[in-house]
């Protein structure tokens, strides 16, 4: 993973073209420590008991350092989960559309199990309540995931392998709809069997 | 619609076997006025500006009358939306599985447009934050809707009309997943064209 991939949209370094200075390198280390701490504490304590204070203490920084880059715990976690998704969901291109789609969906489902699933639920709720956070949630996490799956499905579509009634965009909605509905409503398992079933549903029989 | 169908799980009358008395009839009228007021105000002002005080004033009752039956505005609205869904989504049985499924999905999508869509979003968020409300949300609204669509899909399954990789339960998840994902994440339209596409996806080609 490159340094760039670990940075979020709020990284102040993105706004300048200055070369890397020692202070900037320390900032980047601090950011990474905070993101790692947020993810560790989520695993240990769950979303409800996660606090900016706890994240800062675990990362060995002050609260004000966290607030320098993020408005609150939801945004720290949003960036931590985005990094997590990028790291754990590959975008295969083997030429076998069914195998590629199945691998992507199975990795996506596996990356959404607890504790990540609890955090995803909490962030989706926050996105409904706070429209400004909702926009950041879509831009930072939902849309990049849509684009990744969309790339894969556009390839299948170009090879005439997509189910004939679907477009890549509606197929993306069906796939992430199933994921989110199980997370938010039924809490039924997101497993490999479901990834296989979804793959068959989205591709031409 | 029967009197029974308008009652929610919190109706104190369900706990007794006494015959209908005038006081009970007045209670029932009061309940209905409160549910109608909640729905009207949702339409006029949206979920965020809806208050128990406003609902009571519109219904011509006191706040304490609302609190006698519901813990707060989310639960009043949950019952109002459940009545709304039951009223506007028929469960056709014409023998034509595709036509029946299309009609059900189109009516479901149409019943989830604003202002109902805003309220559904708010209640789904509340369900993530308050687990006790989450259980009531599933029992009162989500599960009865799942059962209605499940009945229709079980019929198609028995006639070997369901897509071969799906069970009625996973087909229900795909359908409601698409609905909720569009409501919560993309806000893309829920229209008749989408109902047709979903019908083709769930049934055997």
UniProtKB/TrEMBL annotation, chains A, B:
Matches recorded under PROSITE patterns: HTH_TETR_2
Organism for this UniProt entry: Kitasatospora phosalacinea
Protein name, as recorded: TetR/AcrR family transcriptional regulator
Region ranges (Disordered): 1-29
Sorted UniProt keywords: DNA-binding, Transcription, Transcription regulation
Annotated region of DNA binding: 51-70
Pfam families (alphabetical): TetR_C_11, TetR_N
Residue ranges constituting the HTH tetR-type domain according to the UniProt record: 28-88
Gene3D superfamilies: Homeodomain-like, Tetracycline Repressor, domain 2
